[in-house]
Amino acid sequence: MRAIGQVEEVQLAPLAGDGTPLPAVTIWAVTDGSEVFVRSVRGTGARWYRHVRETGRAAFTAGEVSHEVTFEPVNEIKNQAVTDAYNAKYAAQPAEFRQPMVEGPSVGATLRVVPE
Hints:
By secondary structure, the chain is an alpha+beta fold. It is built from three helices and seven strands; from the N terminus they run ββββαββααβ.
């Protein structure tokens, strides 16, 4: 999961209940120490987010490295650290792309990525 710091985007393919991968989405991911976090820019209503909250599993690819992962919600204090990490990592991105990831519905759709 160290590759997260070096890649701009990752691919996340939710796994159906039987383990079949569903269509992958391309999203931003950040680290805080050794932990990896993702957010849904569309908040909790995004399809991929609903799937991973339902099944708890996904295939996660960063660069050439893939892992099956599970997810955990984050508390408010950790969520602020994740916001800071998004602001730092994606500072060069135009505000119209970065801002939705650090305020509004996306903040409530933050998950910690846990390698299996």
